[in-house]
Amino acid sequence: xxxxxxxxxxxxxxxxxxxYDRNKQNDxxxxxxxxxxxxxxxxLAERKPDVLVFFYNDHATTFFFDHYPxxxxxxxxxxxxxxxxxxxxxxxxLKGHTGLARHMADALVNDEFDISVxxxxxxxxxxxxxxxxxxxxxxxxxxxxxxxxxxxxxxPIPTPARCWKLGQAxxxxxxxxxxxxxxVIVGTGGLSHQMNGERAGFNxxxxxxxxxxxxxxxxxxxxxxxxxxxxxxxxTEGAEEIMWLAMRGALSPRAKKIHQNYYLPxxxxxxxxxxxxxxxxxxxxxxxxxxxxxxxxFRTRAARAGIQx
Amino acid sequence: MNPQLKxxxxxxxxxxxxxxxxxxxxRLNRFLHGFTxxxxxxxxxxxxxxxxxxAGLSAEERRMVRELDWAALIRYGASFFxxxxxxxxxxxxxxxxxxxxxxxxLDQFLKTRRVPGAR
Lengths: 309, 119
Hints:
The complex is a heterodimer of chains A (309) and B (119).
Chain A: E1 3-10, H1 14-21, H2 31-47, E2 51-56, E3 71-74, E4 78-79, E5 94-95, H3 98-110, E6 116-118, H4 125-134, E7 144-150, H5 160-175, E8 182-188, H6 205-217, H7 219-223, H8 227-234, H9 242-249, E9 256-263, E10 270-276, H10 296-305
Parallel strand pairs in A: 1-8, 2-7, 2-8, 3-6
Antiparallel strand pairs in A: 1-10, 3-7, 4-5, 9-10
Chain B: H1 19-24, H2 26-33, H3 38-46, H4 48-55, H5 59-66, H6 70-76, H7 80-90, H8 94-102, H9 106-110
């Protein structure tokens, strides 16, 4: 049976991919970002998952407003890198796991989550800008993906509570897949930023830090919030945090946050957090090193809180 | 009204992209989304008037795109994520667009940022 090893929450700002493509790893302006992804990269290299299931949002690239899907599951064997106005990034096409994706479509629909499906479409930076930092192609991607698009562009967008439930349904779908697969769930987007109007450039580090705490310790509190709360606290594009909520919903209550990094250089708070399931024992004894931003006491507090869904 | 968004109207300088906005600016956003196709970019660079005419843009829509009037484009109903493609075609970075939304120059905006070089 398929197993879920853990989850990753990450920002997906296009400049993250751009910095990777321009080899900015040691540039003082970018090094704090890259260093924050190192423990995630190491953890994935050690656990060797077969598939990453992505909750992400499209940016009016793959889809347009003539038909903007609320939730859409990718079922292709391959996804081209989308052209977002500059030509596609020079990374290989993404590889899709069709067996798991088709099973997830069956499972979700029979679980009364009537998701739409897409195939043979290109995918934008919502998936691959952060992906290159923790699962770099060398020369090809280390494994396959299953992408799940969530509309956060055109209101009404799905509620935080619905995204939480989507995550739970995806968990049931993955765990019922008969093949022995190691799966990691990824949610991309956020944290605080706003890209329109005179309020553009808005950030709120205090709220971002609280979100990073609650997503591990008390995600139900985040699921109960309204979009107006997310927008007031984290800007209009802070609504992307619902992808993290879907990711967290797909993990067990016992999953623990073992690393996080936070960097706010320009317009968007760039964060990454790594969650591990207790039964996802490492293949090697070496554990992921906590980043400089990780608070060691957090693990203990999260365990004590006994995260309940 | 969408109960999820109640209270949002009190936020100043915020333009929510909802169905009314989407319908109003559909033609303009479709034009901007078209920049994901190399042929459309080439036509826009070589002969913007032909590109505008092909998309059926109004005089005001043409003016805003030609002058890269970011603040007006957002108020009109352009999706930031469609504008982002126009930015790429014109070689304009997101921070410069954000500065435009705020009515600032890029230099003014960068002074408010923690790592102005991270572009």
